[in-house]
Every structure is written in C-alpha cells, then in structure tokens.
Amino acid sequence: MALTGKAYEAAQIITSGISALRSTGSTLWMPLWMSHLARAYADLHQFSDASRCIGEVMTTIETTKKRLYEVDVYRIAGEVALLGPEPDVAETQFEQAVSIA
Fold it and tell me: Structure pTM?
C-alpha cells in the first residue's frame, strides 16, 4: 500500500505489523518495514515521523549488524528526503545506497 499511493492505510497496517514483530523480539525485517513506514509518513507530509523512522532504522542496522536491507533503507531515505523540506540531503542518501550496493 505504501508503494501504491495508499499511504494512510499503509501507515496503519505497517504500524500494527511492527508492533506484532516487536512483541516477538524479532529484528530481522524491522529495517525494511520501518523504511516503508517512513515512506508512507512522507507521502502524508508527516516528515518528523518519517525522519524518526529512518533514524530508528539506521540505529537498528548499526545495533544488530544485520545489513540485509541497508541498500533499500538508504534508497528509501533518499526518496523521503526528496519529498521533505530538505531535498538536498537526498543525494547523500542515494550515494550511500550506491556505495553499499
């Protein structure tokens, strides 16, 4: 839904799913879901929430050392930055994604 223009519904469903994941102690999929939640928030123009999600994703990656979705996270962070009040940050995020890939 986050990728098909249904940001409000996506934010609700992803938030619920993240809560369920956290209740199990799982962190494997967290960076992917949190980055999609950030994108949904950006589409809703809730840039502080989007930024919070991206920050949490980066912290999770650094803490767990699970870098499976790191490229996607930086790409989505760039997309979020393009939509937000500081689009010049997007270039750095995209460059980071390319360097990791």
Answer: 0.85
Which pair of tokens denotes residue 24?
A: 């199990």
Angle formed by the axes of helices 70-83 and 90-100, nearest 10°: 160
Least Cα distance to 78 among 58, 101, 64, 95 occurs for 95
Give CA–CA dist 97/101, Å, rounded: 6
**pLDDT at res. 39:** 93
Instruction: Say if residues 13 and 4 touch (Cβ distance below 8 Å).
Output: no
Q: Are 58 and 73 in contact (CB under 8 A)?
A: yes
Q: How far apart are CA 77 and CA 34, in angstroms?
A: 11
How distant, in Å, are the alpha carbons of 8, 20, 40, 45, 97 from that of 15?
A: 11, 9, 11, 17, 25
When pLDDT is cut at 50, 70 and 90, the band that residue 40 belongs to is very high
